Please model this.
Amino acid sequence: LIVVELKRPSHSLSVDDLNQLETYLTLAEKYKNFRGYEGYLVGRKMNDDLKSRLKHRSANFKVWTYSDLLDDAQKRYHDYLKALDE
Model:
């Protein structure tokens, strides 16, 4: 299961947002069994409290800025994007 929570660009990501993502995964588990999960929280920036608490959360939770998301997509599709430019 993959859950992606996209926040509006003006929103600074907080621990409450990560807790909300965790709640979505917990609710999903009530209705469907799954072998594994990943939760992605995406927003403009993280506040300091969220940064410090992420160290103690499961590695299945990922918090990205929009820039991180775009950089990752660009790295994944580098060859494809290069072919488009030619």
Remarks:
- The CA atoms of residues 49 and 83 lie 42 Å apart.
- The chain has a mean pLDDT of 90.
